Amino acid sequence: xxxxxxxxxxxxxxxxxxxxxxxxxxxxxxxxxxxxxxxxxxxxxxxxxxxxxxxxxxxxxxxxxxxxxxxxxxxxxxxxxxxxxxxxxxxxxxxxxxxxxxxxxxxxxxxxxxxxxxxxxxxxxxxxxxxxxxxxxxxxxxxxxxxxxxxxxxxxxxxxxxxxxxxxxxxxxxxxxxxxxxxxxxxxxxxxxxxxxxxxxxxxxxxxxxxxxxxxxxxxxxxxxxxxxxxxxx
Amino acid sequence: xxxxxxxxxxxxxxxxxxxxxxxxxxxxxxxxxxxxxxxxxxxxxxxxxxxxxxxxxxxxxxxxxxxxxxxxxxxxxxxxxxxxxxxxxxxxxxxxxxxxxxxxxxxxxxxxxxxxxxxxxxxxxxxxxxxxxxxxxxxxxxxxxxxxxxxxxxxxxxxxxxxxxxxxxxxxxxxxxxxxxxxxxxxxxxxxxxxxxxxxxxxxxxxxxxxxxxxxxxxxxxxxxxxxxxxxxx
DNA sequence: CGACCGTTTGAGATCCTTCAATACCAGTGG
DNA sequence: CCACTGGTATTGAAGGATCTCAAACGGTCG
Lengths: 234, 234
What we know:
The structure is a homodimer.
Chain A lengths: L24 H10 L1 E5 L4 E3 L7 E7 L2 E6 L5 E5 L6 E2 L10 E4 L3 E7 H10 L3 H25 L2 H15 L5 E3 L4 H8 L3 H13 L3 E5 L2 E4 L2 H9 L7
Antiparallel strand pairs in A: 1-8, 2-7, 3-6, 3-8, 4-5, 4-7, 9-11, 10-11
Chain A binds a DNA duplex through helix 6.
């Protein structure tokens, strides 16, 4: 809980970063030239909605939460970027969401000005960034379907499968975020999240080793739920 | 209701299309060269989720609805693109949502292969498309907040202001879509949409000339509602 | 006029929330 | 070692916003 914001200028091992995939040797060296490492302890803020966006980031290690707030404090989390995710890419002005560290995180930072020059000078980079952003858009639209039309159980099932995908672990997932984070991501309250998990446990669809460690015992059932195949089990 | 799908190869007056804004004279002529006009009557399908994406479109006239379905028929509308909107831009494979005409529509179509060549050959185009997609992403994230955390009244108020913006009409909006469309856009049922509109009318916040014609009588109140400023009026 | 389709309105049910209490877990200090 | 504390998670009971089901209304078209 003790805040400790470290921003080093040490060059990350940038060659295998997401931003560099598919780039030529020389282009990669340019990316390395402008990047710097940046760390945040769990709970710390990376940037806030409305602040000037002074650059882009790539998550190297750990998990962030990105969220938007309503004036009275209602919160909607729009994503939990993990290692390999680019963020803060497009905004030509202010950040459109806030970013906090869920766990201790390491990031790679690209200052706005040099990043823009890079995009102009490296052929194909704009197109790659376009593709990345288009992927995020697709993901956001899936989330629209989830928030607008799925039930609590379907939402939670979708979320567990998302974690499973992210962690490339078909049966065992780590849940670094709190129930409150999960609720604000799925448009539910913490109580509903908790109750839904308990119900899935009773049904032997999942196992709850601890609050942050979940076993996917019946992946088929979870996938049916997440897909919305109205298979209402008694 | 009688289906009538016309696809002409007549060149649209493409010079002032969204895709061309900011492009040089020669580049514009290239865009013109690959584009074709395309029309759909109200209710007709432009493409369906899962189909191969054979090109991109720009709405020239009219309104579309883009939506995703769950297996049991639950529908989430992800957007109502109107004139000036580009769509089907990014997908390297299948469409990720279905598109239908809400009103009679005119579109400009860019076939995939030539469009891709264009993106590679026109400097700055990829970057522009990236910016367009980033804008859509931002919009989708606002919609996440709406679906996940706003009340029915806040959702409807946001929707009316969106229409007002789209139509650049501060007090009078045309509602071309049905209550069912609105409900599936806001994550509500048609009954709740209708009741909410009736309540806003009783409160003299809006006027309901007819089902598809709404007067914004108290824009401040609508904006306060849409922003989520928990101003619960008696 | 009468049928049709979308909208509005009403009454009751439901899912999820709210409020409140209890349980759990880790860290701290006695 | 164990009680205490603070924070998070779980569980319970009651309430409410929205949904479901059903009927009435209203505009359009033949």
